[in-house]
Amino acid sequence: MRRYVAPAGGEPSTPCAPNVATCGDTPYAHPLSACYKRTSSLHRHAMRATRCTTPRSFTDHLSALHAASDVDGVRAALVPLCRALRQRYFSYRGHFPLPGDGVALPRLGNLPRTWEAQYERRRYAAVDPVLALAARQLTPVEWTPALYVSPQARELLREQRAAGLRAGITYPVFTPSGASGTLSLSSPHAPARRLRASGPHAWVLHAGAMLAMHVHEAVWRIVQRDALRAHAPVLTPRERECLQWVARGKTSWEIGRILTISEHGVVFHLRSVMRKFNVSSRHRAARLASDYGLLDDGPATVSSHDPGRSSPPSPSSPSSPSSPSSSSSPHSRSSPCAPSAAPPEAPSMQVQALAPPLSLVTFGWPDPRASCTAST
């Protein structure tokens, strides 16, 4: 336990309070002094402001942000993230170049609707000094009154404070591809000046910058996907099925067996797809279709005719496409020396089409090769 040593001469060592003691050469406040009470109050305020934010909870919310499939999902994931940073409002504005001369300008946020309508109606974005400064630097821009110099900017400051946006920070984000964006976090309560250098305000500065990069990446991913789908060629259901099986490594013959169409039909559909994508390879067309999101539904269930999955058809199965019917002739296969006379009645047991010729003799049928030899 520390021992309180009164300063020599009875003079206080600091002008903060008369009840300041020293421990060695370091002065500190007595637990009953006014200086200690003020310092303890600031410390409790800082701890209370950041008690709901931990690195683990913040990371969990970031993972939910990247799992969003559309802009509405990103907006919903931003609500708990802003709450963790002790901010009530957020607003994201993006500028993404698209293939060709297109540009995507996504907007999302939870600002008051009346203020959003007023901001767009009066075109405050053209006179907003925060956006102008964020376009020229990478560090966060705090909404300080010193930035609002022009009469239009001062009017903007008064209007946004009246709408409940008294304090805010804007984080600029730039990517090498030319895309840019800004994430603004605002609150109706201005932070205490004594807490701006450290404590919850410093946490907002650092964590908000990381949040801006994650939001920009999530929105950019969604914009790219939607833009690709908008410019994707239109495929017929049969063409999409053929591409799905090409992506799984099937050949034209195997795809024909799976879809119960001819091999020439599969080649016809794949050539049509390659013309639509302007490529010379079916695998390149399948890759582009996957990038466009046209194969997201996945291929159909593998049927019993899939040569890569199913077992060989049973010889006793009458519905097998590889087995002839019980009334079919063994000479239906192409043979250069098939006898002209009709063969004897075939037995009831069916023979697989790809069975060796020895099985014909086994079942009591005449061997066509023997007749050919006799005729020669």
Automatic annotation (TrEMBL):
Alphabetized GO MF terms: DNA binding
Pfam name, any one: GerE
CDD domains: LuxR_C_like
InterPro entries with a match to the protein in the record: Sig_transdc_resp-reg_C-effctor, TF_LuxR_autoind-bd_dom, TF_LuxR_autoind-bd_dom_sf, Tscrpt_reg_LuxR_C, WH-like_DNA-bd_sf
Comp. bias regions, Low complexity: 319-340
HTH luxR-type domain span: 228-293
Stretch list, region Disordered: 296-353
Keywords of this entry: DNA-binding, Transcription, Transcription regulation
UniProt-listed GO biological process terms: regulation of DNA-templated transcription
PANTHER family: DNA-BINDING TRANSCRIPTIONAL ACTIVATOR DEVR_DOSR
Designated name of the protein: Transcriptional activator protein lasR
Naturally occurring in which organism (per UniProt): Pandoraea pnomenusa
